[in-house]
Amino acid sequence: MRVLRVRMAALIAVAGMGAACLAPPSACASQALAEVPARPDPVSSDTQAFDLPAAPLHETLQRFGLLTGLSVLYEAGLVAQRRSAPVRGSMSADTALRRLLAGSGVRVGYATGQVYTLLPEPAASKPKPDPVLTDADRQRYYARLQGHVLRALCADPLLHTGSYRVALRFRIDGRPAIDRLLVAATTRPEMEPRIAAALAGLPVLAPPPGLAQPITMLLASGAGGTQRACAGTP
């Protein structure tokens, strides 16, 4: 068996006994770059034994052509500096080709069962940069969020009597509502369960994109804290 290489419009054909393309070069080039799903035929669907170690991709494709008698068309630069994946076992030629290309950055673009063409894998889309949250937007949201929290505390008269400081740490879930709440009330830890009951699951405004979580909030109860805030709460 011999390897037939047909060069047309910078394309390489790795073949078995037959010619890769008998049409004019321009027609071959356009055909080679078309993307059509593979249509298995008796040649490509029959299983055969493969033992192809990982190697430079061009070399593996040549061996694949010798083993299967199929033609593989690709631009020379496409496979340069790329390596194939190892392929061992009994399988169809179509499966073997796709396996040896795995992880190489090259994919099957067109297949008829006798002729395959290779194309580069689509470039991965670049992740969108995280939205930039300005300090003004952050402070504006914190102020509105604090208003929601204070209104919930003011609804319970026992929570704005006496003096204490409370530290809240929580996340805002997708509903959006306060979730995974931690409460620490200094000097009056007995208030913590009541505060937690008032705030856990409290509906709030959705955070702006880019807001870091969890959120920490410090509040003071007394004449200068929640008492004064609650005095102005409807």
UniProtKB/TrEMBL annotation:
This is Ferripyoverdine receptor. Residues 70-121 form the Secretin/TonB short N-terminal domain. GO terms for cellular component: outer membrane. The gene is fpvA_2. The keyword Transport applies. Keywords: Cell outer membrane, Membrane, Receptor, Signal, Transport. Residues 1-29 form the signal peptide. It comes from Bordetella ansorpii. The keyword Signal applies. Transmembrane segments: none annotated.
